[in-house]
């Protein structure tokens, strides 16, 4: 078989300029646009540290710099309990992750907590990212759990950003969330610390898109574009938490009061109409 290069059968004339193939510029633009969009999406999904308590929202990763192995707060949906998972505790020394604690990101959904905040409130709610979505709560005895499907005062936490960037969580009883060592060396969360020390300090990571969102909202507030919510709690509950497919359900006594108010209003309107008619007849 001949190894000579196959020549083109297209006729060429002497002096004819060779035309080079040009790529479609539109394809290059589309490709660069898709690449730019992918980079932007990856940047928004990056895990970053909050600079302000208002930025603590959305999917969050909570870790504690315990020694000798740092831990992260996770939720075991099978056993329905909070687990303080130690990084690399069961791995041999050569297989341990050498990444810095501040460079770590969640590797499982159980390590992610979804933080929500009522508009205008300084407190937050922490909900599990797996299972049915249970809220992190603390009772008056300092017992911390995540087994409640509804939020209330015991499910409210006030995040406090410390000078070094770490975060402390204060509950409704003005006590702080902490990592405590129980009998047998088992680590657990408690909520009865009076002051912030090493055990009460956590690193919290949020996604970049939510930090950017909070920053934009703060800029709009300072510019006067967004007004602070002025409705009280009762009006907000009636507006957004009505029963009966959006209807406000009231008691029998309330219904009687409403009927009486309507009747008195109709009587007042009738009396005004009669007075205006008498006046018009007098001047005719």
TrEMBL record:
<protein>
    <submittedName>
        <fullName>Actin-crosslinking protein</fullName>
    </submittedName>
</protein>
<feature type="region of interest" description="Disordered">
    <location>
        <begin position="1"/>
        <end position="44"/>
    </location>
</feature>
<comment type="similarity">
    <text>Belongs to the FRG1 family.</text>
</comment>
<dbReference type="Pfam" id="PF06229">
    <property type="entry name" value="FRG1"/>
</dbReference>
<dbReference type="InterPro" id="IPR008999">
    <property type="entry name" value="Actin-crosslinking"/>
</dbReference>
<feature type="compositionally biased region" description="Basic residues">
    <location>
        <begin position="8"/>
        <end position="23"/>
    </location>
</feature>
<dbReference type="GO" id="GO:0051015">
    <property type="term" value="F:actin filament binding"/>
</dbReference>
<dbReference type="GO" id="GO:0005730">
    <property type="term" value="C:nucleolus"/>
</dbReference>
<dbReference type="GO" id="GO:0071013">
    <property type="term" value="C:catalytic step 2 spliceosome"/>
</dbReference>
<dbReference type="InterPro" id="IPR010414">
    <property type="entry name" value="FRG1"/>
</dbReference>
<keyword id="KW-0539">Nucleus</keyword>
């Amino acid at each position: 078989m001949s190894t000579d290069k196959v020549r083109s059968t297209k006729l060429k004339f002497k002096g004819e300029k060779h035309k080079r193939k040009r790529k479609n510029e539109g394809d290059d633009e589309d490709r660069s646009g898709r690449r730019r969009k992918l980079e932007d999406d990856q940047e928004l999904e990056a895990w970053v540290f909050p600079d302000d308590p208002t930025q603590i929202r959305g999917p969050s990763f909570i870790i504690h710099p315990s020694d000798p192995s740092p831990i992260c707060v996770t939720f075991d949906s099978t056993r329905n309990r909070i687990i303080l998972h130690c990084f690399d505790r069961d791995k041999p020394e050569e297989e341990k992750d050498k990444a810095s604690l501040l460079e770590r990101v969640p590797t499982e959904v159980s390590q992610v907590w979804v933080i929500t905040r009522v508009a205008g409130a300084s407190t937050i709610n922490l909900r599990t990212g797996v299972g049915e979505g249970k809220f992190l709560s603390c009772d008056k005895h300092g017992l911390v759990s995540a087994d409640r499907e509804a939020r209330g005062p015991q499910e409210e936490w006030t995040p406090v950003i410390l000078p070094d960037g770490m975060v402390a969580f204060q509950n409704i009883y003005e006590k702080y969330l902490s990592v405590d060592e129980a009998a047998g060396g088992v680590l657990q969360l408690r909520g009865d610390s009076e002051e912030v020390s090493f055990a009460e300090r956590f690193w919290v990571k949020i996604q970049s898109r939510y930090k950017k969102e909070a920053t934009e909202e703060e800029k709009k507030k300072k510019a006067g574009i967004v007004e602070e919510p002025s409705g009280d709690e009762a009006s907000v509950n009636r507006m957004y938490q009505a029963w009966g497919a959006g209807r406000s359900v009231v008691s029998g006594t309330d219904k009687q009061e409403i009927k009486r108010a309507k009747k008195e209003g109709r009587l007042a309107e009738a009396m005004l109409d009669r007075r205006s008619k008498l006046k018009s007849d007098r001047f005719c």
